[in-house]
Specification:
TIM Barrel; eight-stranded parallel β-sheet
């Protein structure tokens, strides 16, 4: 079988033969607060995550006037537009995030939901871009990402194989990671279809990962056992915080446990060669009958 391609993000290789690349997804769980964002960065660093990710939108480009004017009570006002604008970080805050992540030694990047957001993020020279499940059918945005000649991570929620194949045809298989994903918040176990990881691995010769929105950790761990070489989970300081994504997120202790379990699995799976271990020899000498 042809060797699967490897993607490089920063100083890390992502592929079957390398440690799982673990992304802590902040998304909009900072609730517009730079202080909360920094605490989430701290949590990701302390847990041993490889990267932390945010989301960037040009609000007027992504949402219609009617959608922005829709009534919606929220901490920033009484309309959906108040909420969407309140959750967006400006240039000054992104500069603070860039500086803080560099100080803490963690890679950061974003999901850009429109072309203007991609252009905005170029000034930070991100090591890669994430394409959200909601954007997988936006051909114009896919082509815009491809022009940046950066590694791309593509989530596949709300998609069938035909949609995924079309996106890959545009993006190409070089420098691409596909994330198996279900876009329900939180996802039920029967919606996860983790065997889809194997299906994608058989269809594409590129790294396949998993982006989870479920409650709990065991299914994300199982995704790694099934072959996901990159995983992403939303993180939060407290699942009871205000916000639409908080209930499908993982709190600091959970992130730390998930990272530890994945790293222990990587040690425990071994290389498949059957052998007698040095520490087994005295047990063998004690328990086996001499004939």
């Amino acid at each position: 079988m042809k060797k699967r391609k490897v993607v490089t993000i920063g100083n890390r290789f992502i592929g079957d033969e390398y440690p799982c690349y673990i992304i802590a997804e902040v998304g909009i769980n900072h609730n517009g607060s730079l202080e909360v964002a920094k605490k989430l960065i701290d949590s990701a660093v302390e847990s041993g995550c490889d990267a932390i990710k945010f989301q960037k939108r040009t609000v007027n480009a992504v949402y219609s006037k009617e959608e922005l004017a829709r009534s919606r009570e929220n901490p920033f006002g009484s309309t959906n537009g108040d909420l969407k604008r309140g959750l967006e970080f400006d240039l000054q805050k992104y500069r603070s995030i860039d500086s803080y992540c560099k100080e803490k030694g963690i890679t950061w990047f974003v999901s850009c939901w429109d072309e203007g957001s991609v252009d905005f993020m170029k000034q930070f020279d991100p090591p890669c871009y994430k394409i959200a499940s909601a954007c997988i059918t936006d051909d114009q945005l896919l082509y815009h990402h491809k022009k940046e000649a950066k590694p791309l991570i593509l989530s596949t929620g709300m998609s069938d194989m035909a949609i995924i194949e079309h996106a890959v045809e545009i993006l190409g298989e070089d420098n691409l990671i596909i994330m198996h994903c279900t876009s329900t918040y939180p996802s039920r176990p029967e919606e996860l279809n983790l065997k889809g990881i194997e299906t994608l691995r058989n269809r594409f010769n590129i790294p396949i990962g998993y982006s989870g929105h479920e409650v709990g950790l065991y299914t994300t761990f199982a995704a790694v056992v099934l072959g996901a070489c990159c995983v992403e989970r939303h993180i939060t300081l407290d699942r009871a915080m205000w916000g639409s994504d908080q209930s499908a997120s993982v709190e600091p202790q959970g992130v730390k446990r998930l990272v530890a379990d994945i790293r222990n699995w990587e040690v425990a799976k071994g290389d498949g060669n059957i052998r007698i271990y040095e520490r087994e020899i005295p047990i063998m000498e004690k328990l086996r009958r001499v004939t």
